[in-house]
Every structure is written in structure tokens, then in C-alpha cells.
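ok trying this again, last paste got cut off
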Amino acid sequence: MPIFNIQQAQALSEKIQHLDWTLILEQLNQQGFSQIENFLSDDLCELIKADYHHENLYRKTVNMQRYRFGEGEYKYFRYPLPHLLQLLRTQFYPYLVPLANAWFENLNIQRQYPTSHEAFLKQCQQVGQDKATVLILHYQQHGFNTLHQDLYGEVFFPIQMVIVLNQTNIDFKGGELVMTEQIPRAQSKAMVLQPNKGDVLLFTTQFRPKKGTHGYYRVNMKHGVSHLTEGERYSLGIIFHDAAS
């Protein structure tokens, strides 16, 4: 399996830079998610998947059934992260910061996120959050993930990302990404998405502001994965804050 080389890193950095960030941020603001199609090549998806059984890369493995999180398995990478994952985490972050800060300002929450990811991780470390949260998830037939939020501690970033590493209706069936939006004093709204291999999905970690007649209010969101009916599904989760454990 080839390694992630300098030329690939440069090409990926340029791809991130030239994304339509105006549209992406507007979609995140209006609906709580944005899907970026055909972002990661098949080769890079396979490169990430190929590392699944290299146990030295991971600090922790979680059996979802044991903790009643669902049915499947996920593994947290340890520091230092593989270069490809480090690049994705640090180079997406600065484009999301303006929206994150606007959300917190609209909700009158006293937090300002720094422009660099390195500076943000120092804020995490100051409250004892120093464990990597980038993870790879693996589901087989009948696997699923219950609705949840990836917070991990006092300090969190309000947007995260998922990249699906294999192809729906070829490698697996079912396994849709499900998001719910809880509007105060109303029923929950469900959104069901099925990204293709290499697609990036950016979405709300915990909540987003929504403008009403009396100003902004908080809309809470959760996400999960529906039952796989066939095959196996791999995905990469990139959470921008670190964990306490």
C-alpha cells in the first residue's frame, strides 16, 4: 500500500483551499450540515482503511455493543496522527472558525475560538483534554450507531466531519447517516443522508443557533448510523477537540 506523499499532501491542501467555503458555511448555518462530494480519492480512502488492523496506530478500541452505543467497533488514533489525518484536521479547522465564533456570539456564549488548530488544542490541554479523538469506525451486517454527540469534555468545537471510506450499494447497504434536530417545544426533525465513498460530511457537534421572532435560540442535534442490511462500512471521524480520556 503506498504511503501519503508530499505531492498528495500539496494537492489535498490546494483542494481544501479551493472549496466553495461560502456555500459550505451557508449550508452549515442554515441546516446544520454540508456535504462535499468526491473529496477524497479512492486511493486515499483505501490507504486509511488499510491501517485499520495496525494496532500500534490506536490508543483505544471501543466495542459499541459493550457500552450500548450500537453494534460495531471504532478505534481512536494516538498521537502523532498519520500525516493525512493531521492535514485534514488542521487545514479544515481554520475555515470553520468564523462560523463557530458567530454561532457562539449569536447565542451569547462567552467563547472565542483561535484561528489555528494548534492554539485551540492548547485550550483543550489546559482543562486536561489531551487525547486524540480522530477515529475510524467499522460496521458489519446488522451494525448501527445510536444517536449521540461527540463532546468528550468541557472544551469542544461545534462542527465535526465524517468521511465515508467505501461505497454504498456496492460494499454495503443501509448504514445511512441519521441526524436529528430538536427544536424547543416541538417534535424532533430527522435527516437521513447516504454519502458516497470519499464524500466529506461536515455537521453540528452539539447545537447550532436558529433565528426566531425574538432572536436566536439553540437547536440541539444528534447523529448516528442506521442498521446495515448487507456488507461492511468504514468511515473516518474527525473531531477537532481532544478528549480527557
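PB: full thing came through this time. The chain has one domain: 6-238.
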